[in-house]
């Protein structure tokens, strides 16, 4: 029997990898999805509150991207995963008087219908999806290799070789905050750890809310008189060494192992913080903590996502040494890393952006459709090259 060679291997089975795999399966059955965790959606994506709501502000390119993605993604969930979306609307509440003044100034630039409600602004398009079940449903018919740690990728005889044993024609990296496999200095990710909690409460919440945290519409819980409510999320960046803790990006199944003392302390602190913030929105009675999930959002330096091929910086500079003098080189003339693609940097809006971006990436791979310069990785290379020039001065 000849050695198996895949058409596509996707590394990372969070929300980005799940949507990319779901799009690719329309074009091939020779596809493999790999993740270090024991199931899909077991990393940061499974910890997401997965709230879908508009980005408020004056018109700019990032807001335009979120608006397009929200429209696309909301329709995708309603049409393809209707049982996994709670389409109840979101009330956005200003944090203080200054925030309220900003909200008022944004009114001429609203992209979605809204009405004033309680102490805020209600957007009917707001919703929430079940993060784990979305990833599970999207990948149910896709071949998977789970609990598999990828430590090495290299190009051999025109194919990508993974851990010296898995071969593929095309490799797509959707690994979120862990970018150890990308040896390109310009490709930079900031890991922002967040925590979501699920609680039981006798309080009934009819819609989603967002103030300094997000509070979900309540759902009846089993046969009890209590309601299930999600609250998220905190924002933590760690300067300390988090090796060996649940907050280590290299730890597999970090939401399904017994937390160490250091991790437990952080989780308890964030739980108290989230409960206080949630009670500032709605008084929650008879609260019982059901579970805690943590995860690292992957954010780029300019907050835009990263999509498409990667520039091979070493080969490009060897070919055009004057790049280091600040010379502009057209994208089509640079050396790219062949048959390697990324979808990353979706930040805290992974379940809004990923359906929209995955469709674009697969259209780019299959039909060579151009990716917007605002989100393709080329922009990061050009900025990095300019900084190299400044360092030489």
From TrEMBL:
The keyword Transmembrane does not apply. It comes from the Bacteria. Keywords: Oxidoreductase. Residues 7-363 form the FAD dependent oxidoreductase domain. Coiled coil: none annotated. Pfam families: DAO. This is FAD-dependent oxidoreductase. The lineage of its organism: Bacteria, Pseudomonadati, Campylobacterota, Epsilonproteobacteria, Campylobacterales.
